[in-house]
Amino acid sequence: MSEIEKSKVNIVKAPDGIEGPGFFVTTMDKAVGLGRKNSLWPLPFATSCCGIEFMATAATTYDLGRFGAERLSFSPRQADLLMVMGTISKKMAPVLRQVYQQMAEPRWVLAMGACASSGGIFDTYSVLQGIDRVIPVDVYIPGCPPRPEQVIDGILEIQKLALNETTRRRNQPEYKALMEKYGME
Ligand code: SF4
């Protein structure tokens, strides 16, 4: 048993490829996907109680660092995962949209909790009935609030997208059509 195996450190598995003595070949997409998957930089857009649940997820017991996503970014320009947690008022919607647009590609969006996903219990004149009214969402986490295990499950789903997404996806007609639908370039 090697020293690494004895230490219980998990080493990320190499992507599929062709292996031989002294060499390993894979595709650019797979190598980039592996890096993106294991180094997500979340931007926590937290407006209410779900944000507190997220803090518990990031802290020691659940430890987002185990998934390579502990480096939170409060600048949209240095984040690739927008995590929206909490009630979003209609007044806040343009701000959320601007934050999304300031993020560089590739970018993913996670709607955490009932409020971000659908307005939750706040079916009122002032609350946005789901952030997908203003920005595209990749993964929804149900619950009010969701437990940290659910948040981790959502992040694992985002990791799957990051791993398998081609580096050219953003140039594909489907993605362009999605952006057009939201009135973005
Ligand atoms: S979904 Fe529930 S816990 Fe989360 S922000 Fe809304 S009211 Fe609070």
Write the layout of secondary structure elements.
Elements: H1 3-6, E1 18-20, E2 23-25, H2 28-37, E3 42-46, H3 49-58, E4 81-85, H4 93-102, E5 108-112, H5 113-118, E6 139-141, H6 148-164, H7 173-181
Parallel strand pairs: 3-4, 4-5, 5-6
Antiparallel strand pairs: 1-2
CATH C-level name: Alpha Beta
- How many DSSP H or I helices? 7
- The averaged pLDDT comes out at 92
Give a quick account of the main beta sheet: strands, pairing sense, barrel closure.
4 strands, parallel
Strand pairing plus helix content: what structural class?
Answer: alpha/beta
Bound molecules: iron/sulfur cluster
Counted beta strands: 6
Radius of gyration computed on alpha carbons:
18 Å
Q: Largest beta sheet: what is the strand line-up?
A: 3-4-5-6
Alpha carbon gap, first and last residue: 52 Å
Shape: globular
- Tell me which CATH architecture applies here: 3-Layer(aba) Sandwich
Percent of residues in helices comes to 25-40%
Contiguous runs where pLDDT drops below 50 for at least 5 residues: none
Measured by DSSP, the beta-strand proportion falls in: 5-15%
Domain count: the total is 1
CATH fold topology: Rossmann fold
